[in-house]
């Protein structure tokens, strides 16, 4: 129940030496400030790194063929082989919980090595033969026109979707792109869409804008690939891990291509889910470090409050003796000291939270007009859960800070206290 006299006494006790109280409160303020800032900075770093994935389906892996490292069933060691389009259907039929299996072929390598001509302009770009599902695995923003559809696949249409980087090199500013033709290795493709990649593409965002996507079937026909598949992007259903499913995928591929069951070198793969899990684990560890460091700094402030409360109890020994003589119980004395400690801790802690959130708001205002897609840091924030956790830490800290002084206060005998000057 609210007691005006009790709160007046608390405020009077804390303001009797305001400079000492202010210095004591600063320790808690600084501790909670450091805690919130560290958590916000960790979240900003996490947002920046995850932004680099560009919305990519993280429960995915990429798989390509290599050379057999073991002889098997009369097949020699060092034998080269290629995935076939039939492997895609086999994986979909025999491996449960696969959401997408997208075959892909490619012309050109990193940095572009394939000649593309449009009128008098030319450039070297990567060209991919894809199925429509690839946009769900590696999302991109279609800035005009459309992406590949299954009608394009069935009819083997020679259509292309080009990146904004390709557009800048092959077209004049403001020139209409949709419906025009580009020539890839001497074969004409009609442009039906343009795109811009999401995220920073692991620091290669400019390179990612200089790519061209065409239907897989048209690619195979135009460039004499037949049934060959260069590599595959495979995504598991939500609730399933591609890391756990990939052994089944490998077994089917090995069986279909007469690869030794224990030949792990014959199939190359990059498990995006495994790497993403490592990143998540790193940020969980960073959050733990932030709490550890913040609480240690906060603890130093709490120790300061505890020391000051011991001094306050010593200064008020005579007052405590009078109250005990007038009938105050040990619990009443203990409660008064604990309330003063918790009040001082909460006020200074809330000031620290307010200061930290103000700093975070200013940082976010500065980042508003900046393109963070090229940065490893974006939108540093703290959620309500962090604030409530900080409040809980403050209350517990206040109780701990006042516990020893409160115990010392109730040990004072009324007669001994009244004798002090």
Automatic annotation (TrEMBL):
<protein>
    <submittedName>
        <fullName>ABC transporter permease</fullName>
    </submittedName>
</protein>
<dbReference type="InterPro" id="IPR003838">
    <property type="entry name" value="ABC3_permease_C"/>
</dbReference>
<dbReference type="Pfam" id="PF12704">
    <property type="entry name" value="MacB_PCD"/>
</dbReference>
<feature type="domain" description="ABC3 transporter permease C-terminal">
    <location>
        <begin position="292"/>
        <end position="414"/>
    </location>
</feature>
<dbReference type="Pfam" id="PF02687">
    <property type="entry name" value="FtsX"/>
</dbReference>
<feature type="transmembrane region" description="Helical">
    <location>
        <begin position="342"/>
        <end position="363"/>
    </location>
</feature>
<keyword id="KW-0472">Membrane</keyword>
<feature type="domain" description="MacB-like periplasmic core">
    <location>
        <begin position="21"/>
        <end position="249"/>
    </location>
</feature>
<dbReference type="InterPro" id="IPR050250">
    <property type="entry name" value="Macrolide_Exporter_MacB"/>
</dbReference>
<keyword id="KW-1003">Cell membrane</keyword>
<keyword id="KW-1133">Transmembrane helix</keyword>
<feature type="transmembrane region" description="Helical">
    <location>
        <begin position="383"/>
        <end position="404"/>
    </location>
</feature>
<dbReference type="InterPro" id="IPR025857">
    <property type="entry name" value="MacB_PCD"/>
</dbReference>
<feature type="transmembrane region" description="Helical">
    <location>
        <begin position="289"/>
        <end position="313"/>
    </location>
</feature>
<keyword id="KW-0812">Transmembrane</keyword>
<feature type="transmembrane region" description="Helical">
    <location>
        <begin position="21"/>
        <end position="41"/>
    </location>
</feature>
<comment type="similarity">
    <text>Belongs to the ABC-4 integral membrane protein family.</text>
</comment>
């Amino acid at each position: 129940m609210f007691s005006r006299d009790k709160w007046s006494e608390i405020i009077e006790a804390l303001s009797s030496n305001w400079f000492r109280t202010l210095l004591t409160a600063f320790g808690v303020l600084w501790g909670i400030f450091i805690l919130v800032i560290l958590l916000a900075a960790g979240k900003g770093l996490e947002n920046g790194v995850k932004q680099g994935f560009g919305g990519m389906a993280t429960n995915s892996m990429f798989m390509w063929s290599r050379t057999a490292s073991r002889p098997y069933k009369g097949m020699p060691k060092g034998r080269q082989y290629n995935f076939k389009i039939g492997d895609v259907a086999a994986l979909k039929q025999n491996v449960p919980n696969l959401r997408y299996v997208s075959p892909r072929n490619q012309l050109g390598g990193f940095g572009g090595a394939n000649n593309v001509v449009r009128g008098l302009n030319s450039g070297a770009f990567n060209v991919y033969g894809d199925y429509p599902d690839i946009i769900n695995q590696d999302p991109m923003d279609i800035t005009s026109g459309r992406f590949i559809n299954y009608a394009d696949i069935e009819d083997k249409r020679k259509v292309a979707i080009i990146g904004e980087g390709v557009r800048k090199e092959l077209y004049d500013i403001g020139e209409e792109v949709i419906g025009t033709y580009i020539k890839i290795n001497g074969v004409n493709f009609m442009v039906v869409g343009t795109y811009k990649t999401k995220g920073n593409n692991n620091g290669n965002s400019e390179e990612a804008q200089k790519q061209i996507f065409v239907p897989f079937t048209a690619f195979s026909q135009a460039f004499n690939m037949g049934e060959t598949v260069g590599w595959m992007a495979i995504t598991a259903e939500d609730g399933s891990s591609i890391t756990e499913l990939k052994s089944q995928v490998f077994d089917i591929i090995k069986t279909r291509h007469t690869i030794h069951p224990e030949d792990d070198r014959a199939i190359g793969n990059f498990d995006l889910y495994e790497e993403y899990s490592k990143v998540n684990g790193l940020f969980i560890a960073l959050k733990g470090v932030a709490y550890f460091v913040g609480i240690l700094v906060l603890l130093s402030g709490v120790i300061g409050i505890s020391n000051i409360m011991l001094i306050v109890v010593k200064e008020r020994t005579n007052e405590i003796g009078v109250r005990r003589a007038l009938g105050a119980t040990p619990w009443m004395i203990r409660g008064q000291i604990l309330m003063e400690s918790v009040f001082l801790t909460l006020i200074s802690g809330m000031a620290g939270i307010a200061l930290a959130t103000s700093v975070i708001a200013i940082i976010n205002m500065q980042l508003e007009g900046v393109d963070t897609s090229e940065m490893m840091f974006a939108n540093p924030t703290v959620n309500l859960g962090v604030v409530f956790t900080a409040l809980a830490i403050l209350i517990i800290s206040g109780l701990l800070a006042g516990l020893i002084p409160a115990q010392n206060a109730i040990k004072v005998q009324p007669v001994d206290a009244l004798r002090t000057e």
